[in-house]
Specification:
Length: 146
């Protein structure tokens, strides 16, 4: 297996563990990601779509499904009524915090077979990758529909 294959399979391991965590909260991974993305402050729908690599239409459909569960809400921006802001409801915020706690507890399990030094290296490298990734703007990859 080459490096690309290893990264592919690492993403599968992470996605599978994340899906298991989300299922424990009766959420799809997309719904959990959405409420976690807006848990601390409202976000513009257009910016959120770009950050999540989704089309605006796909995000709107995800928001509709998640709003029916009363986990997120839409509102017009106070500065520009054409801009739609998305925020977590109080219930959504509590659920997002619980998801984050579970992720912090269970996602590191993917490195459980590494020795202590390798676990620290894995954490350092994962942190460096995330810290140097621009998660606030669109990627060059096409948006995906969940």
């Amino acid at each position: 297996m080459d490096y690309g294959d290893k990264l592919f399979w690492l993403s599968v391991v992470i996605q599978r563990k994340y899906a298991q965590i989300c299922a424990g909260f009766d959420l799809t991974p997309s719904q959990a990601t959405l409420i976690c993305a807006v848990r601390n402050e409202p976000r513009q729908m257009a910016d959120l779509a770009a950050s999540l690599g989704m089309t605006k239409n796909a995000l709107s459909q995800l928001v509709d499904r998640t709003a029916r569960r009363e986990l997120v809400g839409r509102a017009s921006s106070a500065q520009d009524r054409r801009v739609v802001m998305l925020s977590a409801t109080p219930t959504g915020k509590v659920l997002a915090e619980a998801i984050y706690a579970e992720i912090a507890k269970r996602l590191p399990e993917i490195a459980r077979n590494l020795d202590a030094d390798d676990q620290r290296d894995f954490e350092r490298v994962a942190t460096a990758i995330v810290d140097t990734s621009d998660l606030s703007s669109p990627t060059t990859d096409p948006p995906v529909t969940p």
